[in-house]
Amino acid sequence: MARDIVNFNAGPAGLPTAVLERAQAELMDFQGTGMSIMEHSHRGKAYDAVHNEAMSLTRSLMGVPDSYDVLFLQGGASGMFATIPMNFLTAGKVADYVITGTWSQKAIEEAQRIGEVRVAGTGKVGERFVRIPEALDLTPGAAYVHVTSNNTIAGTQYRAFPKTEAPLVADMSSDIMSRPVDVSQFSLLYAGAQKNLGPSGVVLVLVRRDWLAQASTTIPKIFRFKTHADKQSLYHTPPTFAIYLMRNVMQWIGEHGGLEGMAKRNAAKAEALYAAIDASGGFYASDVEVAARSEMNVVWRLPSEDLDKAFVAEATAAGLVGLKGHRDVGGIRASLYNAVELAGVERLVTFMKDFKNKR
Amino acid sequence: MARDIVNFNAGPAGLPTAVLERAQAELMDFQGTGMSIMEHSHRGKAYDAVHNEAMSLTRSLMGVPDSYDVLFLQGGASGMFATIPMNFLTAGKVADYVITGTWSQKAIEEAQRIGEVRVAGTGKVGERFVRIPEALDLTPGAAYVHVTSNNTIAGTQYRAFPKTEAPLVADMSSDIMSRPVDVSQFSLLYAGAQKNLGPSGVVLVLVRRDWLAQASTTIPKIFRFKTHADKQSLYHTPPTFAIYLMRNVMQWIGEHGGLEGMAKRNAAKAEALYAAIDASGGFYASDVEVAARSEMNVVWRLPSEDLDKAFVAEATAAGLVGLKGHRDVGGIRASLYNAVELAGVERLVTFMKDFKNKR
Fold first, then answer.
1. Who has the most CB within 10 Å: A96, A196, A348, B201?
2. Measured between alpha carbons, how far is B142 from A78 in angstroms, rounded to an integer?
3. Domains of chain A as residue ranges with CATH
């Protein structure tokens, strides 16, 4: 089949073909060293250059201020759900969480096991997460306010982030580097790589150094963000191959206009798909408020669950894969991360028209 | 250069060439799916088969009893240094640690931040870790006894493990699957993959299910081993590509005689190298007690630090890479993990003879 499919997976997700081709070409012998990059010591010159380039590309693409540390960690966003409160929700403090979907919910549940938390806002209307709340009920003197920038299951996304007195923390796992973002709004932002940045197994974290200095110094050393900041994420063996691939993806982002370029690509893809939904006369329908529509994960339903199933089956047969909605909510979901090409979305749109016309 | 080197790295370490060739061949298109395995959903059929095969290969190669869970986790052995006491060193309990090198030391330091620990034995004589202690000072009713099966920096290794009343826990990061081991001796054993099993970024854990049932239920959910056991290590997104490579390495181990086959290969390699050291008339010397010599990491010194440096430089130029001793102890270290071929060790032995004769 040789990559003649369109990968709409929600994560792990598709990677740019050029990135994989390069990884393939140098898999057996990285730059004439006679070894794969994954066989190099994480303390050797070859890997060190890759590691440092991944850090500097993060800084240049995202415009990370010098007052922030860039970390590459393990444990996924789910690990961060625990380590953020372990570091910053110390005794006597309260943290505010904005709940806009399943992942926000998991984040607050983990924080509840560690300290006192409050719900500062919700995106839920009835049974579904369909919006991004505007007005928040913030706690004066909160340790931090946690938001989820994009909700993969709900299909909602922040356009602008709330202004908060307390440090703002964002889970950007599903829209990191999909658009320019002013990093200085956040005291900490984090993202699992497996949607826009690389394979699963590495988390990108940006954290304000002065906030980091206030973190707990009594939790296990491996879970202190400062441990990793102090050692440039080489305190212990990092997931070297995942970081190498992330470096390659970031190079590709740079070659495609950086985050401005990604934003244009992603807006065009989302526009094409939402236009097809809106033009279907209700055959394809979504509960998501228009103002909250995600450019990363587009969710919709057909008139029946049987039609949902038929849609996914026929789409898969047509080489459009990964369209089944999350098991918690059903329906259809197309994830349009950076690596998805507009031509792929156009194939989906054509398929959607044909599928509807046949009914 | 095309892999015409011998990789003696201590970890991340060399992988079997056949494993990398296969990964390279299917990197762009895994089994005709049109996607790389790393682009597949961790909840889809293609990855699921890989994941399950990695689990069943672990069971068959190591002879894992049915009463044990097999886990694939993130965070490295350094993460386990914290999560083991978080799970099992609950209030009022004491854990015993046997200190046989730098990594045991790091393990106990992390445990000290969580609960009460005691040193049950040490491999230190003077300033150096040169032996495996026979007699242990064990605490009656200890939560567990922690040992490090092989010490990468010290170059020592357990032949037989202590019999303990308390649950025995072993860090096997640097000799996992290098030889047959009776799993039923241990309540928990763990290993970062990056030496004998795959790339960095995944930890293999075997844990007795009845012991797991006694673990803390108040720590963050992501750090409870039971969370991962209950979901077959799919509670959150696993490091899919690292697990895929680990699966391929385990297949390769199976094709090469399983753990009996690895033990024979590894014994032959270690024997050849120790014989060269012992036959050098003291030019190559090691403090390590003969009974404690590691088959995985062979450490030695030359008559001066200048000669150590010259040795490493000339060896590197001759395509024998990764021989510099750990920065904590200096000298020379050759890591002879599963993927290193006997022919590679013979090249090193020849080089050692030539180097000595030139002096």
1. B201
2. 31
3. 20-255 (3.40.640.10), 259-358 (3.90.1150.10)
* Sheet architecture: strand order including B94-99: B68-73, B203-208, B188-192, B168-171, B145-148, B94-99, B116-122
Strand partners, B71: B205
How close, in Å, is residue A146 to chain B by CA atoms? 17
Q: Does A38 touch chain B (CB under 8 A)?
A: yes
φ, ψ (nearest 5 deg) of residue A304: -150, 160
Torsion of CA B350, B355, B358, B359, to 10 degrees: -140
- Quick one: CA torsion of A100, A103, A104, A110, rounded to 10 degrees? 160
In angstroms, the Cα distances linking B172 to B146, B148, B152 are: 11, 6, 11
Cis peptide before B65 (omega within 30 of 0): no
How far, in Å, CA of A72 to CA of A52, rounded? 11
- Burial of A2: CB neighbours in 10 Å, binned 0-12, 13-18, 19+: exposed
ipTM: 0.98
The residue type of B59 is: R
3-class secondary-structure state, position A119: strand
pTM: 0.98
Determine whether B211 is an active site residue. Answer: no
Choose, from B96, B171, B287, B308, the residue flagged as catalytic: B171
What DSSP character marks residue A233? Answer: T
Burial class (CB in 10 A: 0-12, 13-18, 19+), B321: buried
Size of chain B, expressed as the number of residues it contains: 359
What token pair was written down for B180? 């047959």
Interface check for A318 against chain B (CB to CB < 8 A): the answer is no
Instruction: Please work out, in degrees rounded to the nearest 5, the angle formed at the alpha carbon of residue A334 by the alpha carbons of A333 and A336.
Output: 145
The amino acid at residue B92 is G
Count of alpha carbons within 13 Å of A28, Cβ hemisphere only? 14
Mean pLDDT for A170-178 is 98
Residues of chain B with C-beta less than 8 angstroms from the C-beta of A44 = 9
Per-residue pLDDT of A214-254, as tens digits, reads: 999 999 999 999 999 999 999 999 999 999 999 999 999 99
Model confidence pLDDT, tens digit, residues A187-222: 999 999 999 999 999 999 999 999 999 999 999 999
